[in-house]
Amino acid sequence: MKRLVVGHLFPDYLNIYADRGNIAVLARRAAWRGYEVDVRALGAGAEIPPAEHDLFYVGGGQDREQALIAPELAALGPALHDAFAGGAAFLAVCGGYQLLGSFYRDQSGQEQPGIGLLPLHTVAGTRRMIGDVLLECELEPGSKRTLAGFENHAGRTILDPGAEPLGRVIAGFGNDGESGFEGCRSGRAIGTYLHGPLLPRNPWLADWLLAQAIAHRTGELPVFEPLGDELETEAHAVSARRAETRGGRF
Ligand code: GLN
């Protein structure tokens, strides 16, 4: 069995809304393509040898949990930057997404350090942005897809000038409830506010991330045979309908 190595950053602190489910989906879809996924929990002081990990994942969390780990994550910053420069893929959700930016000023006004891997910063507002979300994305030119999920955040994320959002908001709040954009994409790194978990109802993004991880390991971007995905497609449709009927309202 071919192998992929996934680094799960701070799984005991950043894991709300079943974000851990994203790892389960990656592992199952990789197995259907002949890859075994070796998931390694990476916490404070973790070793991150160059080129060892093909994909890094970090989930969401409350301000309190973020504050507990932010300095430790920042200490792993240089190794994560090296891994990114070496072509490793990243998926960061909500609180994890915020800490991949330069900083998160939380609801108490405390500035939590980020690792500055994604070109953005976040400042908490007073009203939480909660609800179903639907985005239009174009990770590959000419291939427009939709992403459906659930958001719950106080943070307002501001992308640096010229930074690429993950998608255009069709329904929901997104990064700040105003810009009309959600998330951030930088090469093989994806950051988003979308929980759910995200990947079970958006299998195309799971496959996109897997393909990036395999390209990191093999040097070649694979073309996957389509899987049935009937249930996943239905889950996406239900989530998209909910977003269109009630997303983005305080
Ligand atoms: N604590 C952060 C915020 O409120 C992130 C929340 C989350 O991960 N769902 O914005």
Tags for this model:
six-stranded mixed sheet, alpha/beta
Could you give the order of the helices and strands? EHEEHHEHEEEEEEEEHH
Please give the count of helices.
6
Widest sheet: strand order? 2-1-3-4-12-11
Q: What's the overall geometry?
A: globular
- Portion of residues in helices? 25-40%
Q: State the major sheet.
A: 6 strands, mixed
Oligomer: single chain
Ends distance: 48 Å
Low-confidence stretches: none
Could you walk me through the main structural features you see in this protein, from its secondary elements to its overall organization?
The structure is a single chain. The chain is built from six helices and twelve strands. 48% of the residues are buried. The chain has helices at 21-31, 63-75, 77-85, 95-99, 203-218, 230-246, and strands at 2-9, 35-42, 55-58, 89-93, 103-105, 111-113, 120-140, 143-159, 167-171, 181-182, 184-186, 189-192. By secondary structure, the chain is α/β, with parallel strands linked by helices. The model has no long low-confidence stretch (mean pLDDT 96). It is 28% helix and 33% strand. A six-stranded mixed beta sheet has the order 2-1-3-4-12-11. The protein is globular, with a radius of gyration of 17 Å. The structure holds glutamine. Glutamine binds at residues 16, 60-63, 66, 94-95, 124, 152-155.
